[in-house]
Amino acid sequence: MSKGIGRARRLVLNAAAKVNLILEVLGKRDDGYHELVTVMQAVDLSDRITLEDADVLELASSPGVPADGRNLALRAAMALREAAGVTRGARITLDKRIPVAAGLGGGSTDAAAVLAGLNRLWGVRWPAERLEELAVELGMDVPFFLRGGAALGTGRGERLTEIPSAVLGLVLVNPRFPVSTAETYGRVTPAMYSDGRRARTMAEALARRGAGRVAASLYNGLEPAARQGYPQIAQMEAALMAAGALGAMMSGSGPTVFGVARSWEQARQIRGRVARGAWECWAVRTLRGPAIRIRAGGA
Ligand code: ATP
Asked: How far apart are alpha carbons 42 and 285 in whole angstroms?
């Protein structure tokens, strides 16, 4: 396709990370996945993604992240191109800020941003429901990022119900090493299963917007599995609590942990106390709105 006379069209997007305020493993399914009940919450630590109209489909990524067909952002673009019968390409540039294999859904949010962005750049104009159907084929967390805010996820985590969310100050701590999701799930035993009732308590805590209630309701059934391999998880949580966090928990399959602060100001103080050479720390706010935001775009 000719680029024509004008300049290439270009979109710049922010793709936010998530934490799991609740992650309950109910059991193992026949399809090999685990049955989950989770409360996912978008937070304002974001990758930046640039999409430019191009003849071919290609991706440039940050160091340490594959730039080939293993990259979820490129897979998302290929899936939309095929499903919508698009003949154009795109140049995708990923500027990673979210740590990789960290339990924060980095690859999934990139995939959601590429779906939402190319839906617009290519003029596909699919409604949200249709994009969500494609999203779930890429990964169970991808549909959540097309929405943002807070959501209850059931099934494999992909069946979503929106829940009211509060603006909370959190502190994320990452030990600067990756942990594979498969590795953590591989250590899960039936003793780590629970009944799914904690999610309701969390939804109520969020509705009342009380940081103390949210902190007291945190739960992650994968944490014992991750702690077996990585003692740093308990150490990072202890450091958050010692620095004044109201509660601390691992996100997703780890190894990132997060602490709940009384306020944004306190989140920044806690971050200052916990930040050490070996750990990477962020003070973040929870997002009540979309996880994917278009920062700039046009001709
Ligand atoms: P989740 O919380 O959904 O399990 P995660 O945050 O733990 O995800 P990711 O950062 O998505 O994990 O990375 C998981 C794996 O996916 C890594 O091995 C990484 O190389 C690969 N990957 C593929 N695409 C991406 C991407 N766009 N960003 C980061 N990692 C990616």
From this structure: 9
